[in-house]
Design goal:
The chain is of the alpha+beta class. The protein contains 8 helices and 10 strands. The radius of gyration is 18 Å and the shape is globular.
Length: 259
């Protein structure tokens, strides 16, 4: 019988190295469960990790949770509110330069449109580029891969006719009162104790407390245990899917529920 005590809590600003350890563990143990390549995480400096932890601990639009068992951090979950993002002209230029330096891939081409500027909300089209090049470029302007599917920010459409999720459909994924759950992971030795469900419950509660109407997440098609966890917690497949950026041979399936 497991008598260890589990605590779910928010990340602290001084936990950059703990965050680094967990992210490396996540991507080493489950490389196809997340959209970011391991090499990108390995390349981050201590200063960048410190900045990431400080941002996650203080951001008004997201909550990053740690799960602890007897004082040892063994799991994570993140819930982001999805207000419209507006890029500055400088950010757009940086992004465009980064994307123009990438070589298009043959299996997963994307076309990117960036809304930026003031009231006019101009649209700049960039692409096609491969999705790995895209997430590397987005990181240069402080954005993650899934920022490209937020309403009012970036529009993403796959050139692959087998990809059933078009840009217009993705605009419907992230409404003004939709939160996005990500970074769900529990270390192998701590699984089977209900920690995943506790992390998920806290993420959903954060969305509810911030007056969100629904939450959405993505799960890789090769992760049946994770999908089962989400289904037990009232998530259902919403018909949306996209290629996994770090491994375009795999699909990410969209799941959502009301809060």
């Amino acid at each position: 019988m497991d008598d260890k005590t589990t605590l779910i809590r928010r990340i602290r600003a001084d936990e950059g190295m703990t965050l680094r350890h967990l992210r490396l563990s996540m991507l080493t143990e489950s490389p196809n469960a997340f959209g970011v390549p391991l090499a990108m995480i390995q390349a981050m400096t201590d200063e960048q990790w410190a900045g990431s932890a400080a941002h996650l601990a203080t951001s008004p639009n997201e909550a990053y949770y740690f799960a602890e068992r007897d004082g040892v951090v063994c799991g994570t979950a993140e819930c982001e509110l999805c207000p419209p993002l507006v890029l500055t002209h400088e950010q757009v230029l940086i992004l465009a330069r980064a994307l123009n330096g990438t070589a298009p891939g043959s299996s997963d081409l994307v076309t990117l449109g960036v809304k930026y500027g003031g009231a006019a909300q101009q649209l700049m089209a960039v692409g096609p580029v491969n999705s790995l090049g895209l997430i590397m470029a987005l990181s240069r302007v402080g954005l993650g891969f899934f920022d490209i599917v937020r309403v009012g920010s970036l529009a993403y459409g796959s050139a692959d006719p087998a990809d059933t999720t078009e840009a217009a459909d993705r605009d419907g994924l992230f409404g003004p009162q939709t939160a996005y759950i990500s970074s769900m992971w529990v270390s192998p030795e701590a699984r089977g104790c209900g920690i995943g469900a506790q992390l998920l419950s806290n993420a959903i509660a954060y969305a509810r407390d911030n007056e969100q109407r629904s939450v959405i997440l993505f799960v890789t098609e090769t992760q049946p245990a994770a999908r089962s966890l989400y289904e037990r917690n009232a998530f259902t497949y919403n018909g949306h899917r996209m290629r996994l950026p770090s491994n375009p041979a795999l699909w990410l399936l969209g799941m959502s529920r009301n809060v």
